[in-house]
Amino acid sequence: MLRARALLEAEGFDVVGEAEDGAGALAAARRLRPDVVLLDVQLPDMTSSRDVSEFGGLVERCGARGFVSNGELSRVALTALLE
Q1: How many Å from the N-terminal Cα to the C-terminal Cα in the chain?
Q2: pLDDT per position as a tens digit, 7-42
Q3: How deeply is 58 buried, as exposed, middle or buried, from its count of CB atoms within 10 A (0-12, 13-18, 19+)?
Q4: Helix, strand, or coil here: 29?
Q5: Quick check: pTM over 0.70?
């Protein structure tokens, strides 16, 4: 996640929190109430996958705005999801 934090901050995003596992991520999201949550789906205690095609329709059904792979993470990709 350190790479994601550095990239996001370099792109002008304010990163308000981080977590090492899914439970910590949920607790941080409740406590910090950020505008956007970027969640790594490979957290140790949560769902694990590598490509959006492996999720089927799960991304749409779970309420997420979308999926951005680590290799595609950028201001452009995140802005496109938020529009």
Answers
A1: 24
A2: 889 989 899 999 888 889 889 999 999 988 887 777
A3: middle
A4: helix
A5: no
